[in-house]
Every structure is written in structure tokens, then in C-alpha cells.
């Protein structure tokens, strides 16, 4: 027999089972920490995607709204100014087309509800940010035993939020997963 076999023979079976249990528990604790870290990154991606969607929808709201207001103001002023004078047929047609265009833009703004949708994405982003901070706090302050219970609570909160959050476009997902950038002047500078 070799020395290694002698050492193995001296180890009690109960000792082996305790070592296995301890290794299993340590492995499980590491897995719960890894799981929470993974959730933290996923929640961060979702928060960023909702912020991007909110920003894009807000921009679209203004892209439709501002021209609608400007065109309506032009039509109103032109009609009011033409009450005392007779205007040419070409001017009447131009005012009519501008009026229809203003009405179409206003109708699109109402139907597409960009402002309302942007607000829903902002709310979802704020809720994901709250969960993100909760995960960070849990990882920093909780004992490993408490993390299992904490993970169940966090999972329930994420599941509840995902059922009520507005849908995201593929573009928002793609952009959210790219490294964050801040803009200084016209140059994009990585923020990480």
C-alpha cells in the first residue's frame, strides 16, 4: 500500500460525508451569490433598455407635436388675418393643406401615444433601478444564509415587474447591452 492509501484508510466515513456537505453548502452559497450578480446585470440591462425606449419615444412625441402646433398656429393666424381681405386661390389651397397636415400630425400624436408610452418606460426603468439597488445592498450586507430568502423575494419582484413592464424593441435591447457611453461635445466617451 502507498502512503496515499494509508491516509485514505484513516479517514472516517462520517468525516467524508461532513466534508461533502460543507463543500455542497459552500458551492450552493457561491451559486446564490453568482445568481444574484447575474440578476443584477440583467436588471441593469432592462433598466437601461427602458430608459433608451423612454428617450426615443419622448423624442418622437416632440417630433410630431412641435410641427403640429406650429402648423396649427400658422393656419389659425392665416385664417384670422384673411378675414378682412380676399386671398388668392393658391393661398387658400396652401392654408387648407397646412390645416389637414396639422390635423394628421395631431391625430398621429394622439393615436401613437408617445408621451404616455415614454412615461411607462420611465416608470419601469425606475422600478428596475430600485431592484438593482436592492440586490447590491443585499450582496453587500446580508449573510449567505439570508441571501437565499432574499433571492426568493427579489425573484418575485422581478417577475411581477416583468409582467407589467411595457414591451421593448429589439433595438432598445441591443443598445442597452452595449457599454454605456457619455457624450462630451460631439465625441462619444466610454463611461466605464
Q: What does the model show?
A:
- By secondary structure, the chain is mainly alpha-helical.
- 82% of the residues lie in helices and 4% in strands.
- It has six helices and two strands, in the order H-H-H-H-H-H-E-E.
- It has helices spanning 3-10, 13-81, 89-112, 114-141, 144-164, 170-176; strands at residues 181-184, 187-190.
- Strands 1-2 form a two-stranded antiparallel ribbon.
- Strand 1 and strand 2 form a beta hairpin.
- Helix 4 runs antiparallel to helix 5 (144-164).
- The protein is rod-shaped.
- The two termini are 58 Å apart.
Properties at a glance:
192 residues, mainly alpha, two-stranded antiparallel sheet, 6 helices, 2 strands, 82% helix, disordered C terminus
Number of strands: 2
In order across it, which strands form the biggest sheet?
1-2
Q: Which stretches are low in confidence, meaning pLDDT under 50 for 5 or more residues running?
A: 1-25, 182-192
In which range does the helix fraction lie?
over 70%
Q: How many helical elements?
A: 6
Decide which structural class fits the backbone: mainly alpha
Shape: rod-shaped
Please give the largest β-sheet. 2 strands, antiparallel
How far is the first residue's CA from the last residue's CA? 58 Å
Share of residues in strands = under 5%
Could you state the order of secondary-structure elements as H and E?
A: HHHHHHEE
Tell me, rounded to a whole number, the average pLDDT: 81
The whole-angstrom Rg is: 30 Å
